[in-house]
Amino acid sequence: MSYPVSLPSENPLVTVTHPTPALWVLEMHNGADSRLTDTFILQAFKPALDIVERHWRENWRVGQAKKDEKLCKGALIIVGNRKQDKFFSNGLDFAGASRDPTFSTNFFPVIFNPMLHRLLTFPIPTIAAVNGHAFAGGMALAMACDYRVMADGSKRNAWLCMNEIHFGATLPLSLVAVLKAKSPNPQTLRKIVLEGHRFTPSECLSLGLVDRLAAGNTEGIVAEAQALAETIDSLPKLGVWGVNRRELYRDAIAALSKDVLIVGGLADDAAAKARL
């Protein structure tokens, strides 16, 4: 495999690099704020994950045959556009996607949920290098990773926030399930889901939403994520990291296949009017 790999080839939205034998870096660059559109997910992000997994598994099989643990190591860093340090991901293109009449029935079960499933079952550790704001679907993407390294806010503001409640959008079952799996504290979940709270880096660290803070620009955050990766990249050597993770997040993974039609506030009010 020759790196870097950019996908899709005609209009790249992600780039995968392989800076060390045990590390892959997936950079999202769907514009400056890395919106999670159907094209981005289907033609760029998921194929990039396939490339990383395929390469790691090839190395792992050789390593197993030769009893060389160095070939079995692996970790993946996911980072927002490295030419800026304002956004990790600004989430879905909700305004554009909502104009699609099939959005509520297709996007989550067919496109977004399989992406979360892919991350929750990935065979090597995943680290989100949160190099700026992570809003809504962007926060869900970061939370679906195993670890999170976040900008410390000294250069500019950086927030984790599920802000759907502020613009009248309901959260699908899949997103709530991932949030519950990664942040089981009820008070924190209330602030995330019902208040749409903007969590600062210090709040994120104290509440366990992120694992490390890093000073400086995007490259400093990636460097800290790489330092973290080097402490855990040997854990997949026996091939059971992904298997154990599937058991750890069994309930969340099961919920990804159960999303039903999303009920909006007006529909809920109409049902209440008929009932009361």
Structural features:
276 residues, alpha/beta, 2-enoyl-CoA Hydratase, Chain A, domain 1, 7-stranded mixed beta sheet, 3-stranded parallel beta sheet, 10 strands, globular, ClpP/crotonase-like_dom_sf, isomerase
Total tally of structural domains: 1
Relative helix content: 40-55%
By CATH reckoning, the class would read Alpha Beta
**Helix-strand sequence:** EEEHEEHHEEHEEHHHEHHHH
| Strand numbers in spatial order across the main sheet | 1-2-3-4-6-8-10
The main β sheet shows up as: 7 strands, mixed
The CATH architecture classification is Alpha-Beta Complex
Q: Helix count, per DSSP?
A: 11
| Uncertain segments | none
GO molecular function: delta(3)-delta(2)-enoyl-CoA isomerase activity
Family: Belongs to the enoyl-CoA hydratase/isomerase family.
Protein name: Enoyl-CoA delta isomerase 3
Organism: Trametes pubescens
What can you tell me about this protein's structure?
This protein is an alpha/beta fold and 276 residues long. The chain has a single domain, classed as 2-enoyl-CoA Hydratase, Chain A, domain 1. 45% of the residues lie in helices and 15% in strands. The protein has helices at residues 38-66, 94-98, 103-120, 137-144, 173-182, 186-194, 201-206, 218-232, 241-248, 250-255, 265-275; strands spanning 5-7, 14-20, 23-28, 75-79, 87-89, 126-130, 133-135, 147-151, 160-161, 212-214. A 7-stranded mixed sheet has the order 1-2-3-4-6-8-10, with helices on both faces. The chain has a 3-stranded parallel sheet with strand order 5-7-9. Strand 1 (5-7) and strand 2 form a beta hairpin. The chain is globular. The chain starts with a strand and ends with a helix. Keywords: Isomerase.
